[in-house]
Amino acid sequence: xxxxxxxxxxxxxxxxxxxxxxxxxxxxxxxxxxxxxxxxxxxxxxxxxxxxxxxxxxxxxxxxxxxxxxxxxxxxxxxxxxxxxxxxxxxxxxxxxxxxxxxxxxxxxxxxxxxxxxxxxxxxxxxxxxxxxxxxxxxxxxxxxxxxxxxxxxxxxxxxxxxxxxxxxxxxxxxxxxxxxxxxxxxxxxxxxxxxxxxxxxxxxxxxxxxxxxxxxxxxxxxxxxxxxxxxxxxxxxxxxxxxxxxxxxxxxxxxxxxxxxxxxxxxxxxxxxxxxxxxxxxxxxxxxxxxxxxxxxxxxxxxxxxxxxxxxxxxxxxxxxxxxxxxxxxxxxxxxxxxxxxxxxxxxxxxxxxxxxxxxxxxxxxxxxxxxxxxxxxxxxxxxxxxxxxxxxxxxxxxxxxxxxxxxxxxxxxxxxxxxxxxxxxxxxxxxxxxxxxxxxxxxxxxxxxxxxxxxxxxxxxxxxxxxxxxxxxxxxxxxxxxxxxxxxxxxxxxxxxxxxxxxxxxxxxxxxxxxxxxxxxxxxxxxxxxxxxxxxxxxxxxxxxxxxxxxxxxxxxxxxxxxxxxxxxxxxxxxxxxxxxxxxxxxxxxxxxxxxxxxxxxxxxxxxxxxxxxxxxxxxxxxxxxxxxxxxxxxxxxxxxxxxxxxxxxxxxxxxxxxxxxxxxxxxxxxxxxxxxxxxxxxxxxxxxxxxxxxxxxxxxxxxxxxxxxxxxxxxxxxxxxxxxxxxxxxxxxxxxxxxxxxxxxxxxxxxxxxxxxxxxxxxxxxxxxxxxxxxxxxxxxxxxxxxxxxxxxxxxxxxxxxxxxxxxxxxxxxxxxxxxxxxxxxxxxxxxxxxxxxxxxxxxxxxxxxxxxxxxxxxxxxxxxxxxxxxxxxxxxxxxxxxxxxxxxxxxxxxxxxxxxxxxxxxxxxxxxxxxxxxxxxxxxxxxxxxxxxxxxxxxxxxxxxxxxxxx
Length: 955
Ligand SMILES: [Zn+2]
Known about the structure:
By secondary structure, the protein is of the alpha+beta class. The protein is built from 32 helices and 31 strands. It binds zinc ion.
């Protein structure tokens, strides 16, 4: 699933069979002695929480499901027959069910032998021996708190195979979960409805009584009774379609492969297809509401490129018979990987090829690659339980990076994976972070697992592991893991075992990776002063961004790699004195790696040594230059250098690889906030803009120009604005407003960042005038302006605009046709700063004019921006209960997260007081993180504000 809204000690446990002195025998004993931080969720489950899991005495094998939705009254009727095995005699069958009325339940024995589910079970064989004896349910207990239905039978059910039958009714809800309704307007402004499903993590139980846990895999045969003009789409292709006596169409789908309940999909409505294209033998179609079909062509052509690349990487055939990509007007998440029927928020799938931005095209491609990777990693092989959710999501995130880098190398997704690392660290540097693997006992905790730790940190440690073991071993391990557990479930340990086996036992992957997965946070590596001919001292400790954070005993086995920055070409990277570098002994593994040119090959050359102790050292011989201690930024750790070395590395900034510069910029920014280096250090790096050539690095530096803005006062603001203009205008002169033929795609991002910062924080009059002129041209004709500039133009106009511009943007939002335009204009309303206009945008939230899925993002935008945040916070507090009622329950997390940007102590107190008594659904951790972020902002603001202002003025 994609959740972003656009958008873990031990010693050297590297086992090298070829090494005479096995490091395992030397160091294995230390692993238990190493302290591990306690994960934020305790491991002791209460009896009540444990009872939320279903007993394993009854196990489903196959579901026959039929649904008849009523899109006038927003209800549905369903019936099901579940083939199941009774593994131990019982008179109670416990299933998950929520907000369903169940009737006519009965159970019939098919066979007295509980057959293990076949890998590809077929439908119900009602002629099986012993079939026939039916027992009606004596009572049904519906426990809405536990979301369970207990079906009691008078006689005990002996072990064997049975068919459980029942009927049920439910509501097509507005919560965007389970089986829900979605509304849209046609070109004439008339309302239409469709119904759709979103099951992950635990909402299949809202559509049908089910064994709604990922480990209960079964096959599904789904039918739908629909209006004849409607289309029904599910996981499998249509088997038959017939008219019934009521004039309705009965659509019966083929049986699915074995899969988890959270992957069931059924979408019914007036849906229109693009053409169908075949990729690697798989028919692929994009579906939209009527009139938007042509907007699906980009996604279709991208999917056609992605599928063969991923199938080749995994070395396993795509597990479905077809692939539908469905754009839904209302959708709570970004996208969902239902086997064979991936659903998307329509603004994240549909792109106008002429007016769509490069950014949106990249986003759509990346989300498609993520969801399609899930068809293997998640759908074919599924985590056993939600505590291992990261297995699904981290891998899909990392695989999307690899896939898009292959089909669109000009976008440099591999280099951008450092951005993923930087983002993950921004969450993981909090004291309130959690381990990647966390206990999950109830649905709310399962939902909270969808965060930056699961996705971005997970993907980042997979990248670190891949660099450490080599790409070839990593890929073989993934292939073997998927083959071994196909159509079944697996755990984190299974993945580590498979990758270790792929190295022929040369690398003890489980011991290297466990602390990264089971322990929260990540390390800071501090290097002593680097002096030629001397010993370089290293220290690791858990890194916290809060300057007043408590200490920690945690340690990690850190894959440490050095880049030598100096004149001496013969200089070798330092080797840790206490450990055995595997850069020579593991040379076979490394030399077998693919040796493509560019970024990919540079990643393969990282040395394979582990910094595993709190303190270590290495000798420095004959080095004129300096060591950068995170080669290619592949390591999930920050590095602090002695101040003279910081200066040397800064001076040699251009000798670092692009990935290293991106990691260095992030580390320096963070370390200054936590008070571990000088406040001025990151500010000095802003001046690198004058020599920097790399587009990715330049864009990141330009983005950092806004970081001093909230710290300025009326005295320092003019100097800040002058500083922004002085440094960004030369870039503007080079780039201009118009894209040049043949320029790299990433130039557009840089142009966007430069113009946006000049027209807003820099208050450059010329840029504001140009943006305003282009804005008027754009409002007259959306296609008259370079689409990549539109977000900047709108941002600049709103930042500087008044009532007239507000009215214009508001009107453009109401009349927008393309989902991207609608979303963009709506979000622009949150960029107006004048209090009266902020008030108008706030009034929209409860007006019924903004979709439930979009309203939280609009409020979040207002809470994030410096100028509107206090007004938005007052509104949020005053209208909390109304917002809770109107916003989709899961989306309140977004509102809580947006509270991270406050800076003043008085705001911190207000937020703490409020959230102490007002709970955010599924948002306990989001609130804790937001409050800690505000606390960090307050500490930084109080300690650094004077020095930042002074530095800016001195420029
Ligand atoms: Zn996902």
